[in-house]
Amino acid sequence: MINQDQLAGLASRLCPMFVILDAEGVIEAAGPTLEKLRPDAPLPGRSFFEVFQMNRPRNIATMSDLKKVRALKLHLQFRDPPQTGLKGVFAPLPAGKALVDLSFGISILDAVRDYDLTSADFSPTDLTIELLYLVEAKSAAMEASRQLNLRLQGAKIAAEEQAFTDTLTGLKNRRAMDHILDRLITSERPFSVMHVDLDYFKTVNDTLGHAAGDAVLQKVAAVMVAETRKSDTVARVGGDEFVLIFEGLTDRQRLESVAGRLISSLEEPIPYGGHMCNVSASVGTTIGNRASRLDAAELIHQADVALYAAKRAGKACHRFFKPGMEAESIAVASQPTEGEEAPDAARRRTE
Amino acid sequence: MHGLINRAIQSFVCATYGEARWIEVMHDANLGFSEFEAMLVYTPEQSAKLLDSLQRVLERPLDEMLEDMGTFLVSNPEVEALRRLLRFGGVTYVEFLHSLDDLPDRARLAVSDLYLPGLELLDHGQGKFSLLCQTGLPGYGSVMMGVLRAMADDYGDLVLLEHCGDREDAEVISVTLIETDFAEGRSFDLGAGAV
Questions:
Q1: pLDDT in tens, B112-148
Q2: Measured between CB atoms, does B88 come within 8 Å of chain A?
Q3: Residue B85: its H or E element
Q4: What ipTM describes this predicted complex?
């Protein structure tokens, strides 16, 4: 049998945060690392239960309480600051004495800082140093990953800005439309530009929410693609604004019938979450004219003027651009009874 | 080669020769990008092109540059993390040398797809050691030379290092410990990195 001094010497090597308690719970010996935590108040001679507060299991204030729970893991902390949390395990010794081995557990990160611990304070078989290493290595790796994510996020935003596709509908976007218009103008091929603006879309958004609005826009996009040829361009250029470009198509009658089909298809109620969403569309068309030598912005403006003529005509209808339409629209806008006047005026213009 | 290694080369070149030279190197390598991402993996061909261009553009022998890079990785304050991770290996330089056997496994603990070839320390007694750097990463031995040199300074020990060339399947570095506590060294506080 070894005596208590030999036991304390052995424990100092194997588990340098041990305490040996006498039968009353007074600390007789403490390991060197544990002593290092309280350099100004030596632990031997003080009661274990005065130095440490037992957190789990609760209500342990004496040696006999402690002996009853010997199989369990102890959770305790110093009563005086820094109130480092510790884990412990209890082992009875002869003559009613006991050995309690302590460890930092999860509080190790604070402890190495608070107590200026070094590798020499831990048993070589203790995994604490590996744990600290891992925490630092993982933090460094996480930081590198975080930086990568930030850069990828930035790159994604930049790529979206340069992209030609509207992410919600899968249609072309305004940038794509500008490119296509410029190409058509330079190539001097005949084409026409149709500007479509949804009617009553704001009501859907306001009453059923943006998710319903998004669903409607997606359905509208599908209708537009279905009602046009593969060689035509369908672009979403604003919230509920679309531009259709018909390459090689300038026949007014055919354009009129395309617009009419488009409006009636868009007026089909769109189911969303048990509701029916009803929208329609106002459409304005202009024909790219080789002789007029208009640029893209001027063509879009003409289609826009025609679109607003259709809006004034009571919505849900189609108008071609006509020279002088712009001046009329200003004149009509200044009349107080425009709502009633406009349809007639607009109808006359298209005839 | 793991992005961390390529990225380390990039940091070293930018800090030592300037970003303009780095752009020249990457232009010469013709990889289609100018920066490496630390957390992505690149092909051995891409890394080989980088090393080729490094020699061509900077007009210095590769082993010399890689040794400087090893020193840079440990001693530059901007990459303090690596120096700290290496210091976890031991309280003294000799302990650190012995911990190098575990370095590839430690690296994999931190970043699971980071592969480093094996390291084996032979202790010949009386302060004489050989470090065998296994093949698999071009220039590994040269980088380790720089790391060993910088870590000796970090511990404040005086050592003699010599690259003894290749032996079977490993590069051999001989390490002779002349004097411990030769200089002050840098302090290492276990808790400093745990923010």
A1: 889 999 999 999 999 999 999 999 888 999 999 999 9
A2: yes
A3: helix B80-87
A4: 0.73
